[in-house]
Amino acid sequence: MSDFEQQIRDTLRRADAEPMPVAPIDPEEITGRTPARTPGGGRRWLAAAAVVTLVAGIGLGAWALRGPGAGVPATPAAPATTPAATGAGLDVELHVGREIHWVPLDPKVTQELYLMLADHEAAGLLHKTGSPDFALGAFGGFILTPADPSLPELRILPTRVIVHRAGDYQQLQDPNELFYNRVYDAISPLLDTDVRKALPPTKPEIPTITATVPPSKGAIATWTLANPKAISITSDSLQLTVTRLECASGKTGKILEPEVSIGTADIIIRTDAAPIGRGAGTCQANKSVSLTIILAEPIGNRSLIDAACLGGEAVRTTSCASGAIRWTP
Fold first, then answer.
1. Is 247 a member of any domain?
2. CA 305, CA 309: separation in Å to the nearest integer?
3. Which single residue of 123, 188, 201, 272 has CA 20 to 30 Å from 179?
């Protein structure tokens, strides 16, 4: 283990031992109401004190690290002129035109990113590079600036990560977009649609949808069409093959009542499996089960979409590698 990796792990271990209050989230505030602001305070540990900065040139300004008195809002703030201050950590500040939004980065995500970096550092995958120079209007990446000055600043781009420490720059190639996808997945649900559309797409790309995504009510399972060639715009019955995502000793088990949401351009289907005890299964591939769904109306000119591949733990797995869309007219 390298000195750098040990330093990060020691820092995170100290941080984990320190209790940190977290303000509850009010769903109404996510829809646009400005959250209440309370005085900031307390020591800010690494995982909560990273900020994500989005540099996108024209149209998008920057997300900036606030000063020592600033904190994280309890929820994404509506357009405002000053940051929230709750004492839970620092903000993600996002400028879009004349509007400013603050979006918190989950402390656990920050931990994961720096541990991932330490692993790549130990493997010798970082290489010296020059200071990044981006064209006007080009996407400049997510910038993480930790409160601990002994740890490097990260500029996370779709296929590479630029590491800045003590005036020196190193670059990590990330063709699978592990770093970019991790941050994108964490913050995208908190962003307005227009802001999210301005970001480079992820792999696989998450489609824009018109139907409401059914909430998860069980263990995540993904589905495919048993016979895609049998589907047409007049079809109102679907034969699916469903597979539990989690480790379950090779069994998918019982599938809960499927949830179907019909929009103007898509039909979203969620096929959760019945929960099982955590840690009770080994991790070989689970056998699929068949499921028939009767739609309330013919498919028409709408795409069929697997809800599990729109967000959550399944998105970056091989089950969703081809994307969330299972069929298009």
1. yes
2. 8
3. 272
Q: Decide if 269 is inside a domain.
A: yes
pTM score of the predicted model: 0.51
Contact 268, 324 (CB under 8 A): no
Q: Give domain status of residue 254, yes or no.
A: yes
Is the link from the previous residue into 39 a cis peptide, with omega within 30 of 0?
A: no
Instruction: Please give the C-alpha separations between residue 225 and each of 72, 109, 259, in angstroms, as whole numbers.
Output: 43, 34, 16
User: How far is the CA of 77 from the CAs of 101, 178, 256, 305, in angstroms?
Assistant: 6, 28, 36, 31
Q: Residues 135, 183: contact at Cβ < 8 Å?
A: no
Per DSSP, the three-state class of 197 is: helix
Cα–Cα distance, 157 to 179 (Å, whole number): 8
CA–CA separation, 145 and 291 (whole Å): 48
Tens digits of residue pLDDT in 75-111 = 333 333 333 332 233 344 444 445 555 677 788 888 8
Domain membership of residue 210 (yes or no) is no
Same-domain check for residues 149 and 226: no
